[in-house]
C-alpha cells in the first residue's frame, strides 16, 4: 500500500480530481495553452487508461495510483478554456470531490519554460481557465500545478503566444517538462504540497 504523509490529499473524502486545462480540437492540441491536456494525457498513458466521454462535458480517465492507492479521476473539459468551470463543477458534484481534492494543471506565463510552481489558492494571474473554475465552484482554494511556458518574445501579445506551438528548441525538452509535471501531480497526491514544492521548485 502507498505510504502517505501528513499534508497529502485525503482520498477518504472522495477521489482526487486532476483537471488538465486546454482548448478542444486538433487545432489547439500542440499549443502552449494546452500543456495541461498534455500532462493529464501522460498520467493516463502511465496507467494504461483510455479516455471516455462524461456527461459533465469532459473526457475522463479513472485509476488507482499504485497498489491500494487513492482513486484518481483525470479530466479534460470539452469546452474552450474560458468556460472550463462548468464541467469541473459538474465533475466535482458527480464524483463527490471537495476543493481540497482538486488539482488543476495549467500553463503559466509568469514561470520560465521547463519550470514548475505549485500552490494552493491565491489569484488566477489573468488565466481565464482558472477564473472560470474559481467562479463556478465558489472558491479559489484548490491546488494548482503551474507548468511554465515563459513570456512571449518582443511585443507579441500573450493571447497570440499561448495559442502557438512550442518552439523547435522547446520541443526538444517538452516531453521531460510534461513528465516532470506529471511526477509533481503524483507527488501532490501521495506526499502533499510542502514536500512537493521543495522537490519540484528546483531547476530540473
TrEMBL record:
Chief site of localization: cytoplasm
CC per GO annotation: cytoplasm
Compartment list: Cytoplasm
Site location (Discriminates between blocked and unblocked aminoacyl-tRNA): 23
Quaternary data: Monomer.
Residues the entry annotates as binding tRNA: 28, 80, 82, 128
Record's catalysed reaction(s): an N-acyl-L-alpha-aminoacyl-tRNA + H2O = an N-acyl-L-amino acid + a tRNA + H(+)
EC top class named in words: hydrolase
Keyword Cytoplasm set for record: yes
Entry function: Hydrolyzes ribosome-free peptidyl-tRNAs (with 1 or more amino acids incorporated), which drop off the ribosome during protein synthesis, or as a result of ribosome stalling. Catalyzes the release of premature peptidyl moieties from peptidyl-tRNA molecules trapped in stalled 50S ribosomal subunits, and thus maintains levels of free tRNAs and 50S ribosomes.
SUPFAM superfamilies: Peptidyl-tRNA hydrolase-like (SSF53178)
InterPro entries per the UniProt record, alphabetical: Pept_tRNA_hydro, Pept_tRNA_hydro_CS, Pept_tRNA_hydro_sf
Positions of the record's site feature: Stabilizes the basic form of H active site to accept a proton: 107
One biological process term in Gene Ontology: rescue of stalled ribosome
EC number: 3.1.1.29
Keywords tagged on the record: Cytoplasm, Hydrolase, RNA-binding, tRNA-binding
Active site: 33 (proton acceptor)
Name of the molecule in the record: Peptidyl-tRNA hydrolase
GO molecular function: peptidyl-tRNA hydrolase activity; tRNA binding
Family according to the record: Belongs to the PTH family.
Amino acid at each position: 500500500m502507498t505510504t502517505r504523509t501528513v499534508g497529502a490529499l485525503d482520498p477518504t473524502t472522495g477521489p482526487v480530481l486532476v483537471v488538465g486545462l486546454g482548448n478542444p480540437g486538433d487545432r489547439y492540441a500542440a499549443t502552449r495553452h494546452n500543456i495541461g491536456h498534455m500532462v493529464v494525457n501522460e498520467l493516463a498513458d502511465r496507467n494504461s487508461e483510455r479516455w471516455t466521454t462524461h456527461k459533465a462535458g469532459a473526457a475522463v480517465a479513472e485509476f488507482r495510483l499504485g497498489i491500494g492507492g487513492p482513486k484518481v479521476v483525470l479530466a479534460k473539459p470539452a469546452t474552450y478554456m474560458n468556460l472550463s468551470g462548468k464541467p469541473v463543477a459538474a465533475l466535482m458534484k458527480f464524483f463527490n470531490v471537495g476543493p481540497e481534492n482538486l488539482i488543476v494543471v495549467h500553463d503559466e506565463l509568469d514561470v520560465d519554460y521547463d519550470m514548475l510552481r505549485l500552490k494552493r489558492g491565491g489569484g488566477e494571474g489573468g488565466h481565464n481557465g482558472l477564473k472560470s473554475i474559481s467562479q463556478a465552484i465558489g472558491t479559489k482554494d484548490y491546488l494548482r500545478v503551474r507548468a511554465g511556458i515563459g513570456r512571449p518574445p518582443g511585443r507579441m501579445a500573450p493571447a497570440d503566444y499561448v495559442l502557438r506551438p512550442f518552439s523547435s528548441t522547446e520541443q526538444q525538452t517538452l516531453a521531460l517538462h510534461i513528465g516532470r509535471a506529471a511526477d509533481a501531480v503524483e507527488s501532490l497526491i501521495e506526499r502533499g504540497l510542502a514536500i512537493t514544492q521543495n522537490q519540484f521548485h528546483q531547476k530540473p
